Here is the input.
Amino acid sequence: MAWKCIIPSCYKTESHMVESTKKVVSKQTSLQRLSLSDVNDPSSPMLVDDLSNSLIGPKLQVFSLAELKDITNNFSWSNLLGEGGFGPVYKGFFHDKFRPGLEAQPVAVKLLDLDGLQGHREWLAEIIFLGQLRHPNLVKLIGYCCEEEHRLLVYDYMARGSLENQLFRTGYSASMPWSTRMKIAYGAAKGLAFLHEADNPVIYRDFKTSNILLDADYTPKLSDFGLAKDGPEGEDTHVSTTRIIGTQGYAAPEYIMTGHLTTKSDVYGYGVVLLELLTGKRSIDRNRPNREQSLVAWARPFLKDPQKLYRVMDPKLEGQFSAKGAQRATALAYKCLSRRPNCRPTMTDVTNILEPLLELDDWCFVPFVYIAPPPDRDENVSKDYSSINEKEIESEEEKDANEENTGRRGGRGRGWRHRIKSTMSFVTYSDMSLYKKFGDNLEASNNCVD
Ligand SMILES: Nc1ncnc2c1ncn2[C@@H]1O[C@H](COP(=O)(O)OP(=O)(O)O)[C@@H](O)[C@H]1O
Ligand SMILES: [Mg+2]
Here is the structure.
């Protein structure tokens, strides 16, 4: 395998190699997780050959391109499982004599799109993080391939694909039941909490439904660590980034404004996914009426008020959910989506709140009746014309929708709002996602009032 492709030629001096080997050895003896900066840092380049040996945890397999072509039917279209910003993912199969020590099993092979925006760095990040972190709610990385410019990753195959495909699939298939949604919300929270609580915390950075995979019994597994980052070190409160990378609709507002990443940025993304699970709606949908295009902006006013719960819950659940569970889960989503990072719970808090909800069985079985809005109105919010103060909802909705959709808040004289001039350079990319350029003044709130 051509390791040299990983190391910039200018660093290939003998002394550097000696230094790098020493580093690897010391890492191994202390059993400290190798960090991305250890391998990416130009001042201490590292031979990729050493990489598979120096990662802690079960040894990763190194595959040849020919082997992976062979098991995926030459990357056949019929084996395609999905595609994101890194490239296409194909189903493959290890037969029983494929390689000693490898059991016969289906696998997923992710192939770098050489014309795409991602590359070696994202490939390496997946190896560094998924190769060393093992947890029941993280997908298992089996191995990788690096030949010339080709970069591939091989994972356990997840029979039910991504949460995105399961939750938003159209057609006549049954909608995902409440208990499955809660199982997924809880498991995904455990995976994220594990990353945040690690000795060297990891910021996942791209939490969204297409990056949560489901195995045969709907156990969720976080995958796609291409954008993950090591958390702040020492006294630092955040990791500074110069490029805002993530996915619109999931990225935390303060991260978009300042480029400052913390574990609380992941909590915001988690809140968006929880909201998608509760509402059955995508975080951004340009096909929805204007004020509903951003799910967070539309739903936020309803989340803090149990009386308005019926406005957000997925009609496809047909009222079959725990009333108490839904109330607590929407209140939790509201907290996770707080504009103030410090007011968001930690992911461990989230798991503690969600765990008891798995047992609740106070199903409400309230039939949800959808009444189509009059054709001349630019909205399709379901109405039941009961005791709602329509005016109040409208004004709250409008306020939030305007704030989220324009990226501006305020101008209404609230003392706790401060203007922040964004100074970031925004070169952005990710999984088929949209990125916004924020050059304008943006505002952030300064306390926990949303
Ligand atoms: N291990 C897997 N098992 C089954 N499907 C997978 C697996 N890994 C990825 N996929 C499918 O491929 C899609 C893209 O994978 P992902 O790792 O997110 O790629 P990218 O880094 O390009 O975003 C997922 O949303 C999912 O549909
Ligand atoms: Mg992805």
Remarks:
- The CA atoms of residues 182 and 236 lie 34 Å apart.
